[in-house]
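Quick note —
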Amino acid sequence: MIQKDNGISGRSSRPDSGAFAVKTMTTRTGRMIAACLTALMLSGAAWAETPEVLCELSRDRVYLGESVGYRVTLNHVENPSPPELAGFDHFDVKSAGTQNLNSRQITIINGQRSEVVRRGQAYDYVLTPRRAGLLTLPAPIAQVDGVTLQGRPLALRVVEPDSQDNVRLEI
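Predicted structure written out below.
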């Protein structure tokens, strides 16, 4: 049975044109997908180059006397200086090292080359609260190419350990 071309089925009123219609539809779909992927890569590349400061805690609740991991990540920057941690008066702050986040990924698909470059540095700290309560970690500040970048403040709940009247020691 021969049907008229409705643009969906890929069939045509010509008996010998069925393969051509399917091939044309597949080629159009492939071109549409390629165009969408290219647009996504280009929009992602423009967005990815904006310098930013990210902050994260390893936990959001600790007991008084415990320490918590704190990471400040400077994304999309080359050779950054360590961030300023001003206002951390309720914490003992110790540096736990840095991690270089620079990387380059090159992909070649069907002769088309794409490249993703990431630049950044992560700074790790160990924070030990000096008092109990809901404490706010101030936003870290970083200077990058003459521009001041600021992270976001985070909250940490510090709980007093339960007191005990009885202590049992076994040896």
